[in-house]
C-alpha cells in the first residue's frame, strides 16, 4: 500500500505497461509473477494527475522557502550574484567532497579568447574516502581533507609557485544543505546521502577547513564554498548562455537557479542592499531533496518507508529517498528480498522459500546493490536475457542462476523504479520553471543517474511535457549534460569572487 491512495490507470495493466514504461517485448510471466508485477506497477507508476499534484505542492514549498527562513525546502542564498561572462581567467584549486571520493582539481580558466570546448583545463586526483570516515568525527574529516590537499600540492609542484603569503585561491564544493551568510561561509544544517560525521552539523565548514589549512601552512586561500548544483549551473553557463537551471540527479538530488532578488522575500534589508550592488539576482540552492518531508503527497510504498526508517536521518530528505541514486538500488534490493522471502523468486524445489538461504545471498545486505545494476539490467534488450541472468546470479550471489521469468521480472522492476525516479525528478524542475516563469532553456544536469541511466533523459522529458503541456519533441526546456560543476564550476565562482574583491578593493 502506498501513503496516498491515488493510483488510477484504468487500462488493464499488462497491456498498457509495455508502452507506458517503454519496456522491450517481454515474455508472459507465470501467473503468480504477473500478479506481483501488476501490484508493483500499481505502486510505482505515477500517472500525470499525480505528477500535477506533486508539482502543485512543490511550487508552494519552493515559494515558502524563498519567503521565510527555516522552511522545509530551504532555498539557500548562495551569494553567487551572477552567471559568468565566459571571460573569467586564472588558475585555481578546488576540493569536492563527494559520496565516494575526495576530488582535488587544479583548474585553469582561459576565458573567451579560446573556443568553447577548450576554455578550461583541469588536472585532478581522486582520493577514495574510507567508509569509516563517513560515520567518523569532525577532526578526522578535516585532517583527511587537509592531508590530501597537501599531497596534491606536493605532487603537482604547486608549492613552488605559491606560498601562505601568496596563496592560490581555493574553492570548496560541499554538497550538503548549508546556510551561507557569505560566499566563504557555510554552516551545515544536516548531513544527507548517508554521511553522519559527528560534530560538523551546526558548524561553519569553511572555518574548519581554513583552520586545517592554516595548521599545515598550506599555500591556499579559501574563497568560496559552493553546492554542486550551483557549480553545474555556473560551469555550464560559462560556455552555454541558454543554461537556466543546474541540477544534480546522482547519489542525491537537488537544483539551483538564478532568482530575482525581489523573489527572495526572506532577505534582510541589509542583505538585499548589499546584494543589489552586485546584481539583480542571486543563485539559490533549493535543497529540494527535502520536499514533502511531511509526507503529504509523495506516494511512498512500504519499502520507501523502510528505507527512511533505517537511514541515519529518518524523516529527512523524503523526496531524495525516492528519486536519487543512493536509494534506487536499495529499493530494488528490498523489492527482490520481499519476493524471495515470500517464496516467489529464487527458491527451487519442493521446499519453497526455505530452500534458499537468504543470508548467503546479497539480498539481506543493506545498500549492497548499486544503481548501476538497474542500468545494466535495463540495457539488456536481448530476448534471452543472458546478460541479466548472469549479472543477477553474480551480483546477488544466488546459489543458482535465476530463471528466465525471474530475470524478466527483475528487469521490469528495475525499469519501474527508474521510471518513477525520473518522473519525480521532472517534478522539481517543472515546479521551479513554473514558479519563475522559465519557458525555455537548458537544464544542466550532472550526477550518475542523469549521466548513466539509460532512458533517464527521455523519461524526464516526457514527464516534463505531461506537466507543462507540451509535446516531447518540441520541448523548449531541455536536459543537457552539465559541464564539470564541482571542479570547473567551483573554480569559476572562485574567479568571479577574486575579480570582485579586486574591483571593490580598488573602488
Ligand atoms: C544535498 C545537496 C546536493 C545533492 C546532490 C543532496 O543530498 O543535500 O546539497 O546538491 O544531494 O549532490
Question: Which helices and strands appear, and what pairs or packs with what?
Answer:
Layout: H1 13-21, H2 31-44, H3 48-67, E1 76-77, E2 90-97, E3 101-109, E4 120-128, H4 138-156, E5 168-173, E6 178-179, E7 187-188, H5 205-215, E8 220-226, H6 228-239, E9 243-249, E10 253-260, H7 269-276, E11 281-285, H8 302-310, H9 320-323, H10 325-341, H11 371-379, H12 386-395, H13 404-436, E12 441-446, H14 448-452, H15 456-468, E13 477-481, H16 485-506
The structure holds beta-D-glucopyranose (BGC).
If you had to describe this structure to a student in words, what would you say it looks like?
The protein is globular, with a radius of gyration of 24 Å. The protein has 507 residues and is of the alpha/beta class. A hairpin with a 7-residue loop joins strand 6 (178-179) and strand 7 (187-188). The protein is 42% helix and 15% strand. The strands form 3 sheets. A 6-stranded mixed β-sheet has the order 1-11-10-9-12-13. The protein has 16 helices and 13 strands. It has helices at residues 13-21, 31-44, 48-67, 138-156, 205-215, 228-239, 269-276, 302-310, 320-323, 325-341, 371-379, 386-395, 404-436, 448-452, 456-468, 485-506, and strands at 76-77, 90-97, 101-109, 120-128, 168-173, 178-179, 187-188, 220-226, 243-249, 253-260, 281-285, 441-446, 477-481. Helix 4 (138-156) packs across helix 5, helix 11 packs across helix 13 and helix 13 (404-436) crosses helix 15 (456-468). Residues 4-10 have low confidence and may be disordered. Bound molecules: beta-D-glucopyranose (BGC). Beta-D-glucopyranose binds at residues 175-177, 192-193, 227-229, 248, 250, 252-254, 287, 289, 320. Residues 175-177, 192-193, 227-229, 248, 250, 252-254, 287, 289, 320 line the site of beta-D-glucopyranose.
Amino acid at each position: 500500500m502506498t501513503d496516498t491512495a491515488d493510483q488510477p490507470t484504468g487500462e488493464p495493466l499488462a497491456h498498457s505497461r509495455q508502452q507506458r514504461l517503454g519496456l522491450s517485448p517481454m515474455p508472459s510471466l507465470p501467473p503468480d509473477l504477473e500478479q506481483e508485477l501488476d501490484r508493483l506497477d500499481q505502486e510505482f507508476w505515477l500517472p500525470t494527475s499525480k505528477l500535477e499534484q506533486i508539482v502543485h505542492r512543490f511550487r508552494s514549498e519552493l515559494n515558502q522557502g524563498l519567503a521565510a527562513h527555516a522552511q522545509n525546502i530551504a532555498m539557500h542564498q548562495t551569494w553567487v550574484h551572477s552567471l559568468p561572462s565566459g571571460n573569467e581567467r586564472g588558475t585555481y584549486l578546488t576540493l569536492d567532497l563527494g559520496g565516494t571520493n575526495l576530488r582535488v582539481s587544479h583548474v585553469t580558466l582561459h576565458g573567451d579568447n579560446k573556443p568553447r570546448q577548450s576554455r578550461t583545463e583541469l588536472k585532478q586526483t581522486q582520493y577514495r574516502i574510507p567508509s569509516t570516515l563517513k560515520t567518523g568525527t569532525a577532526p578526522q574529516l578535516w585532517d583527511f581533507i587537509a592531508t590530501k590537499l597537501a599531497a596534491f600540492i606536493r605532487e603537482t609542484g604547486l608549492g613552488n609557485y605559491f606560498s601562505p603569503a601568496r596563496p592560490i585561491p581555493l574553492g570548496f564544493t560541499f554538497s550538503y544543505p548549508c546556510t551561507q551568510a557569505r560566499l566563504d561561509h557555510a554552516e551545515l544544517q544536516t548531513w544527507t546521502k548517508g554521511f553522519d560525521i559527528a560534530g560538523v552539523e551546526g558548524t561553519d565548514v569553511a572555518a574548519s577547513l581554513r583552520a586545517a589549512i592554516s595548521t599545515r601552512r598550506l599555500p591556499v586561500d579559501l574563497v568560496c564554498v559552493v553546492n554542486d548544483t550551483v557549480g553545474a549551473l555556473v560551469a555550464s553557463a560559462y560556455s552555454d548562455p541558454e543554461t537556466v537551471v543546474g541540477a544534480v540527479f546522482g547519489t542525491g538530488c537537488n537544483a539551483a537557479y538564478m532568482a530575482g532578488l525581489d523573489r527572495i522575500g526572506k532577505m534582510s534589508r541589509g542583505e538585499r542592499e548589499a546584494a543589489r550592488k552586485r546584481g539583480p539576482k542571486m543563485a539559490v540552492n533549493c535543497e529540494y531533496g527535502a520536499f514533502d518531508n511531511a509526507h503529504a503527497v509523495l506516494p511512498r510504498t512500504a519499502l520507501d518507508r523502510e528505507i527512511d526508517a533505517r537511514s541515519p536521518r529518518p524523516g529527512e530528505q523524503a523526496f531524495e529517498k525516492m528519486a536519487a541514486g543512493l536509494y534506487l538500488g536499495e529499493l530494488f534490493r528490498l523489492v527482490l528480498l520481499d519476493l524471495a522471502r515470500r517464496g516467489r523468486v529464487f527458491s527451487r524445489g519442493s521446499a519453497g522459500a526455505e530452500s534458499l538461504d537468504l543470508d548467503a545471498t546479497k539480498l539481506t545486505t543493506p545498500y549492497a546493490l548499486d544503481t548501476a545494476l538497474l542500468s545494466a539490467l535495463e540495457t539488456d534488450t536481448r530476448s534471452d536475457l543472458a546478460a541479466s541472468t548472469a549479472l543477477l546470479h553474480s551480483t546477488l550471489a544466488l546459489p543458482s542462476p535465476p530463471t528466465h521469468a525471474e530475470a524478466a521480472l527483475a528487469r521490469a522492476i528495475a525499469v519501474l523504479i527508474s521510471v518513477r525516479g525520473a518522473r519525480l525528478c521532472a517534478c522539481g524542475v517543472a515546479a521551479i520553471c513554473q514558479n519563475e516563469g522559465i519557458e525555455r532553456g537548458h537544464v544542466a544536469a550532472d550526477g550518475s543517474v542523469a549521466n548513466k541511466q539509460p532512458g533517464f533523459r527521455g523519461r524526464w522529458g516526457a514527464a516534463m511535457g505531461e506537466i507543462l503541456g507540451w509535446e516531447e519533441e518540441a520541448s523548449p526546456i531541455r536536459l543537457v549534460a552539465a559541464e564539470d560543476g564541482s571542479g570547473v564550476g567551483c573554480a569559476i565562482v572562485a574567479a568571479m569572487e577574486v575579480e570582485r574583491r579586486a574591483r571593490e578593493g580598488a573602488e
